[in-house]
Amino acid sequence: QEAAWLKSIYSEKPALLERPASILPRFDQNDKRTLVQELQMSSIQKDFCFDELESIIKIKHAEAKMFQSRADDARREAEGLKRIALAKNEKIEEEYANRIAKLRFAETDELRKQKFEELQAIERAHHEYLNMKMRMESDIKDLLSKMEATKMNLAM
């Protein structure tokens, strides 16, 4: 009887046992399908993210190159402007030196003219002095000769 009893229980229960066993594989298959789909979606999203990141990196590299080229251009332009400024400054210094030299030349020329006029005035004064000296000498000689003549006239 035990075997019959076991058989009857066993014969009733296998339907219950088979049912969960058949449900679980389907659940596993559904779960596997959704897991595979999620992995595929995740893989697609990762690929999309990687592609997006790569494109962002490429854009940033392009921006960096653009800014570097702009910086290089600005540096070259600044160096050119610096050379121009130095050349203009040098030219201004030369013009300033020339103007100063011309002013000094004009001042020197004016000073030379003043000194020449002073020299001429001194020469005129000296010439007048010599003329006056000669007149005085001649006047003194005349006076001495007259004194001699009067002395002789008185002595006689």
From TrEMBL:
Pfam families: Oberon_cc. The keyword Coiled coil applies. The keyword Coiled coil applies. Residues 27-144 form the Oberon coiled-coil region domain. GO terms for biological process: maintenance of root meristem identity; maintenance of shoot apical meristem identity; regulation of gene expression; root meristem specification. Residues 64-95 form a coiled coil. InterPro entries: OBERON (IPR004082), Oberon_CC (IPR032535). Keywords: Coiled coil. One of its GO terms (cellular component) is nucleus. This is Protein OBERON 4-like. It comes from Trifolium medium.
